[in-house]
Amino acid sequence: MNKYILLFAMLTPMSSFAFDLGASSSGNDISIDFWTGINESQKIGFYSRTVIDFDSYEGDDYVSVCGDGEISSSTESGTCSGHSGVSSTKLAEFSRIALILGPTYKLSETIDIYGGIIFGFYSSDVSIGDSASLDYSKYGVDIGLRLKPIESSDIKITLSYETEQNRTSVGFSYPIF
């Protein structure tokens, strides 16, 4: 039995996980990027990005602006009771956070390609009533390259394009272990 354990141990390559952490931006957002692989010599890995957007997006639904500045999800009468009444209506505004997940593939020692699915989550500015009734999500594709400008360097430059907001991002990543 011991010889089979020894044979299995010798035939199984020793591997450990490798993790890179990075940040990227399109100018309108910033993302925290997490890259993983079995180890640096493996060709296939995985990445995830969390995007925090600084832009506001207008929706198709009108909301009521109350006299005290609160936003109501309804435009019906009585909407701003206790909030100085309705002063005007406007299109709802949304903030966005996105999550990207996908595989990576190492083409060479200096170039990785990656592609994943992006899920954008939009949250309305409504502060009175059912704010979640206007919230929505969109999805798209994220594709890109990670380039190591100097082969002996650990820093990689990331270039990506996302179809969900039609944006190009530039950033960097660095191994954390």
Note down, in words, how this protein is organized:
This protein is mainly β and 177 residues long. The protein has a domain at 15-56 and 96-175: Beta Barrel (Porin), CATH 2.40.160. It has 1 helix and 10 strands. Strands 1-2-3-6-7-8-9-10 form an 8-stranded antiparallel beta barrel. Strand 4 (57-66) and strand 5 form a beta hairpin. The protein is elongated, with a radius of gyration of 24 Å.
Key phrases:
58% strand, 177 residues, eight-stranded antiparallel barrel, Porin, mainly beta
Q: State the major sheet.
A: 8 strands, antiparallel, barrel
- Please tally the β strands and state the result: 10
Structural class: mainly beta
Mean pLDDT: 82
What characteristic shape results from the CA principal axes? elongated
| Count of DSSP-assigned helices | 1
Could you say what the CATH architecture of the domain at 15-56 and 96-175 is? Beta Barrel
CATH class of the domain at 15-56 and 96-175: Mainly Beta
At the third CATH level, what is the topology name of the domain at 15-56 and 96-175?
Answer: Porin
Between the first and last Cα atoms, what is the distance in angstroms?
35 Å
The SSE order reads: HEEEEEEEEEE
User: Which spans of ≥5 residues are poorly predicted at pLDDT below 50?
Assistant: 4-16
- Beta-strand percent range: over 45%
Q: How are the strands ordered across the major sheet?
A: 1-2-3-6-7-8-9-10
The percent range for helix content is under 10%
